[in-house]
Specification:
With 461 residues, this protein is α/β, with parallel strands linked by helices. Among the domains are: 4-100 and 177-224, P-loop containing nucleotide triphosphate hydrolases (Rossmann fold, 3-Layer(aba) Sandwich); 294-434, Distorted Sandwich (Coagulation Factor XIII, Chain A, domain 1). Helix content is 24%, strand content 34%. The chain contains ten helices and 20 strands. Helix 6 (191-206) links the parallel strand 7 (179-183) and strand 8. Helix 3 runs parallel beside helix 5, helix 4 (132-146) packs across helix 5 (161-173) and helix 5 packs parallel to helix 6. The protein is globular. The N and C termini lie far apart (83 Å).
Length: 461
């Protein structure tokens, strides 16, 4: 299929990015002289070999959508984004982009170290097709956003890394794009500036812009995106809701080498399922027992996760994940503010070194809220022999707002390439938190002190 890339103004069609069979193929050469021969005699027999960085991607992105792309290094994320931006020509397939694109493929790409911050901002705007008038209207906004003071008119070679990131990001998002493309550029500057960047991105989104970005940070995908895409070896394996994609991405990342291709095939098949069936793929159940008294909640036999996912290298296995009240009764409907224990058993099938255990509580969106580990990285049990078993408990206080939550369980050990999961159960159980003695908690976490809030009202005399 011949490559056909088009960029048109936004129209009534709600799809702003369309790709069919999109691919990018490079020629690889063993020797530099082979590359030279191919350039001089293009019709001669090709000395190189083909490498498909991206292949067969079908994609539809609607106006106002926020879509995240995840995948291992070398999976084709950056190549895909570069083709959508127009900085890279596709080798095959069709691609149509409707609307003005603001690319952020690398912070400060194209900045000259000899130019001042102001001069680089003008250069960046010219490259994006903005007139002097457009830039004049936005310049003060850029200066205020970067907040680097008099250094704005100094050569950027004198900037610190943080100052460079500030002005580059400010220049990139000061415009009002219809399509914002970002490749791993959200972790810039200090915490306050990062929060300001997120606020600006949210305002761009609320204005109706489409956001398409790649990231290695699962929480960003879960928090910002309507939909996510999993890339691997240049192929789009899965397009689904962010929680499903992140779970399958983790499953793929931590799979043993001998099981990788089989799991990859399973992930691809999940992408072919109807949306309502994806969440149940790989679901499992946990053991139910008798109910507990209402003081500490109760056990609801119908409260089972349909999104349970397991992976690991097989040297250990987690069983019987549960939450216990002070009388050792299992509960999954908890009372806010009460004390519980998150417990599970682990069976070891081989000798393992550097063993650690963990748990993680998440929101229904998949956002990682809080967790515990038995030991710090690099510590843990020095050796656990084959045939051993471990009973693991994590005491916790349910200082959570009323709602539904999910919890993971994991056991880690040393592998050939460092610490890896022996077994991990994602969404091992789900539980609900009922209101406690107060209804003053907002958000998801109860941050109240022992004395509660105090208000002092001063009246004019």
């Amino acid at each position: 299929m011949s490559s056909d890339t088009k960029s048109t103004d936004s129209g009534p069609d709600e799809r702003v990015i369309e790709a069919r069979g999109l691919g990018k193929v490079y020629s690889l050469y063993d020797r530099p002289q082979d590359r030279l021969k191919q350039m001089l005699w293009p019709r001669a027999r090709r000395a190189g070999r083909k490498f498909a960085a991206v292949r067969g991607v079908d994609l539809d992105v609607g106006r106002g959508e926020c879509v995240g792309v995840v995948g291992r290094n070398g999976s084709g994320k950056s190549t895909l984004l570069s083709m959508i931006c127009g900085t890279l020509e596709p080798s095959e397939g069709e691609l149509e982009v409707r609307g003005r694109v603001a690319p952020m493929l690398a912070i400060g790409a194209g900045f000259s170290p000899e130019f001042t911050g102001r001069e680089n901002v003008r250069l960046n705007a010219a490259v994006l097709g903005y007139s002097d008038r457009d830039l004049s209207e936005r310049m003060q906004r850029i200066i205020d956003f970067a907040d680097i003071g008099e250094f704005f008119d100094q050569p950027v070679k004198r900037y610190s890394a943080g100052m460079y990131s500030r002005i580059a990001f400010a220049a990139a998002i000061a415009i009002d794009p219809e399509i914002l493309i970002m490749d791993e550029v959200l972790a810039v500057g200090d915490e306050a500036f990062t929060r300001k960047c997120f606020a600006r991105i949210e305002s761009i989104r609320e204005a109706g812009a489409t956001i398409f970005f790649a990231s290695h940070a699962p929480n960003l995908i879960l928090e910002l995106c309507d939909r996510a895409i999993l890339m691997d070896a240049g192929e789009c394996l899965l397009q689904a809701d962010p929680k499903t994609v992140i779970a399958q991405h983790h499953r793929l990342m931590f799979s043993p080498k001998e099981d990788f291709e089989a799991i990859r095939g399973e992930v691809r098949r999940i992408g072919e399922l109807p949306a309502r069936e994806r969440a149940t793929a790989g679901a499992s159940r946990t053991r139910a027992t008798a109910a507990a008294p209402e003081e500490y909640g109760r056990y609801d036999a119908g409260l089972k996760p349909e999104t349970t996912l397991e992976y690991g290298d097989g040297r250990a296995r987690i069983v019987d994940v549960r939450i216990l009240d002070p009388e050792d009764r299992p509960v999954n409907v908890l009372r806010a503010g009460r004390s519980y224990r998150y417990a599970y058993e682990v069976e070891f099938r081989e000798d393992v070194w550097g063993v650690r255990f963990g748990m993680l509580v998440k929101l229904t969106t998949g956002f990682e809220l809080a967790g515990q580990a038995s030991d710090a990285p690099g510590a843990g049990l020095e050796k656990v022999a084959v045939g051993s078993s471990a009973s693991v408990e994590f005491p916790f206080v349910a200082r959570l707002a009323p709602g539904t939550y999910f919890a993971n369980a994991g056991v880690l050990g040393q592998g050939v390439e460092g610490e890896t999961y022996l077994h991990r159960v994602v969404d091992a159980l789900m539980f609900k938190v009922l209101p406690g003695d107060s209804e003053t908690v907002t958000g998801s976490v109860d941050l109240r002190g022992e004395e509660g809030a105090r208000v002092r009202l001063d009246h004019d005399s």
